[in-house]
Write a structure and sequence with these properties.
- The termini are far apart.
- The chain has three domains: about 70-85 and about 275-335 and about 340-375, Elongation Factor Tu (Ef-tu), domain 3; about 85-115 and about 250-275, OB fold (Dihydrolipoamide Acetyltransferase, E2P); about 115-245, Helix Hairpins (Orthogonal Bundle), CATH 1.10.287.
- By secondary structure, it is an alpha+beta fold.
- It contains five helices and 15 strands.
- It has a six-stranded antiparallel β-barrel with strand order 2-11-14-13-12-15.
Length: about 375
């Protein structure tokens, strides 16, 4: 039995012997831990510092923009001009078009010519009417002169008849006295009386001749007035025909460019029909600034302008004027704020800017976008 039992001591594994420290009573030291950072230890104060720093930066930026920034700029600006349409004032067929689109012209240069033959004929007819009226005036003037001469003759005859009547009256009185005294004859009295009656009739006739001559002169003067009126009418017609003839040649009234030319040779144009647009050389910039940007803006302040189409060209100018009112106040349908619902909107006010010198190597015209920057305060 003893031999069959296993040897417990032999089956135990060999375990390593633990070394007992010399000072068994002392505790084992704990491993060292890393100290958290300042941000983790004070996150609230760090956040407050960041917010305060951001607020100071924003406040400084706003203070710079409001109180120290010397510029006001807007992208709501464009090149402006008083462009207008060129129209024909008379009708006719186009004979010559010596220009082309976008061509620059000086004052007096020909844009288009209408066939002038019909208007030349009308002018010749009017000149003929003037000659007829002049002849009528001369004829009536001659008639007036003749009437003056007839008046002179009639008055002379009247004076002669008056003298003869006076003598006949005296002779008749003398014969009657002689008859009463017995020295004269009845026949002599009768003869003197007949002569007196003849002279009275002759005087009446001469007076009628004078009246007739005066009326003939009045008629001639009325005819002359009519002839002068006809002359003025003929001269007015001739002047109108001359004007219409001059209107057949359409010229540029001022330096500028021809744009959107529609007139062509052989085309029939009506009076008032537009044949092109004309853009004068005098152009400026209309900048629509917000009303809050006008606090320090005054005429004469310098302006730097950048063209959207040609950003390499920087222009310089000055503020010419500020419109006394917002843009909507002068629109076709202005805003009606006297309603139940109202939302305040910052208005824009047009500001006119004059450029010192426009570049000559590029084409600049109305409607092109620009960005003006106005120096509203002296630079620090």
């Amino acid at each position: 039995m003893a031999d069959n039992q296993p040897n417990i001591m032999e089956t135990k594994p060999n375990r390593p012997k633990q070394k007992i420290p010399a000072n068994a009573d002392s505790p084992t030291p704990a491993p060292e831990t890393k100290r958290p950072s300042f941000i983790r230890r004070h996150p609230f104060w760090v956040l407050c510092g960041i917010v305060a720093l951001a607020a100071s930066i924003v406040a400084s930026w706003f203070a710079w923009r409001v109180y120290f920034y010397p510029y006001e700029s807007t992208d709501d600006a464009f090149v402006d001009a008083r462009s207008f349409s060129v129209a024909a004032k008379v009708s006719g067929y186009v004979a010559v078009v010596p220009v082309t689109d976008n061509q620059h012209m000086q004052a007096g240069d020909v844009i288009l010519k209408i066939d002038p033959r019909d208007y030349q004929i009308a002018l010749d007819q009017a000149n003929g009417q003037i000659e007829v009226a002049n002849a009528s005036v001369q004829s009536t003037s001659a008639q007036i002169d003749a009437a003056d001469a007839a008046i002179d003759v009639a008055r002379a005859q009247q004076n002669s008849a008056t003298a003869a009547l006076q003598y006949a009256q005296q002779e008749a009185n003398r014969q009657q006295q002689l008859v009463k005294s017995g020295s004269g004859s009845v026949q002599s009295v009768q003869q003197a009386t007949a002569t007196l009656q003849q002279d009275q009739a002759s005087l009446a006739q001469m007076q009628a001749n004078v009246t007739s001559a005066l009326k003939n002169k009045a008629v001639s003067e009325a005819q002359k007035s009519s002839a002068l009126a006809s002359l003025k009418q003929a001269q007015s017609q001739a002047e109108e025909a001359q004007q219409n003839l001059s209107y057949t040649t359409i010229t540029a009234a001022q330096p500028g460019r021809v744009v959107r030319l529609t007139g062509a040779k052989g085309q029939y144009v009506e009076a008032g029909q537009a044949i092109s647009m004309f853009v004068p050389d005098e152009i400026w910039i209309t900048a629509n600034f917000k009303e809050t940007q006008l606090t320090d803006m005054r005429p004469g302040q310098p302006v730097d302008v950048t063209l959207d189409a040609y950003p390499d060209h920087t222009l310089h100018g000055k503020v010419a004027s500020v419109q006394p009112g917002s843009g909507t106040a002068f629109s076709l349908l202005p805003a009606e704020n006297a309603t139940g619902n109202y939302v305040k909107v910052t208005q824009r006010v047009p500001v006119k800017i004059i450029v010192d010198t426009w570049p000559a190597d590029v084409a600049i015209g109305p409607g092109m976008s620009v960005v003006p920057t106005v120096t509203v305060r002296p630079r620090n």
